[in-house]
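#struct-queue
[09:14] JT: dropping the first one here, sequence first, then the structure tokens:
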Amino acid sequence: MSVQPPAAPHRVSIADIEIPFWRLVVIMIKWMFAAIPAAIIFSIIVTLITLAFWGTVIGLVGGLNIPGVKM
């Protein structure tokens, strides 16, 4: 059994990709439908972070007993 050294990597360059127009439209529609749940999940995460931030701020301000500010 002989061990051969690994071959040098070959560089590959892609010059052109031919995609029919309607196939490209179908791909973009799939991306659109995939983006809807991602946007919903992202907005839920942002809402939770915002609520946690403002809850902390209001909790800190409420504990300061600032004259003229009622909590």
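[09:21] JT: and here's the second one, same format:
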Amino acid sequence: MSFTSDIKSELTKLETPTCCKIAECYGILLFGRAFSEKLISLSTENEEVVERVVHLLNSCFAVQPHILGGGSKRDYFTVTIDNEQKCTEILNSLGYFGFELGDSVIKYQNIEDDCCKASFIRGAFLASGMVSDPNKDYHAEFPIRNATLTNEFYDLLCEMGLKPKKSLRGQTHIIYFKESENIEDLLTTIQATNHTLELAGIKVYKDMRNHYNRLSNCEVANISKTVNAAVAQNSAIEKIKQKGAFETLSAELKFAAELRSKNPEASLTELVTLSGNTVTKSGLNHRLNKLVSIAKSL
């Protein structure tokens, strides 16, 4: 099962009060495949969502929908109400008299309290929401075909303290979340508690792994830098000797050159220790760089 399916399975097991049942059912229907006076329909791959929808329709509207699909040949289910009288009764009970949408698609009298707004969002997620596998990417979205519904739902999410973003994918409007913290807030709002904790745990693991990777990369870079510097210094000292210029060096430079020649792979810190701490790290580095400069001038 996908991460989204797992979340939806968790949500279908929630116990909610009557007002929140209506709000959740409303969210499912409004974000389903069809929501009109002639047809109300929802498609889903999750059988537990189907059972949840059937239960809510029976409980809230005393309606028994048609169920199609499932089995070995179909990997999704369709929940349908095609009785025009039943569709009209549901619409009227939700505030769509004559299905006059007017300027507002969401009928806020159905979701007056915060608990009902959260349940409405949960219903929308059960109908059309998705969350990608957090081991691969942080992304959650609601695809919506209606521009007005998109804007109203976006405002509702913001009202609930969430931080969604909007985009357009072809003819479909997308409300989405990217950062893991924002997705955690969304899951908390719709009461997917177990998966909120799972997402947080995955984020901690990934952050720790990335931190250790950065440390490892930094260590490798430092080793490479040390090796390259040592190679350049040894080459410079060898060139100075070949050109017969070694005896012209000062005592300090001769000391640095001999110290490096005898310890060609040692780090700067190790050379200071090998010198008996008779020279500082910066002082020794300056002398070795001076030897490289002299070699270049020969």
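[09:30] RK: nice, looked through the second one.
[09:31] RK: Residues 238 and 244 are 10 Å apart (CA to CA).
[09:31] JT: good to know. The chain is about 55% helix and 10% strand.
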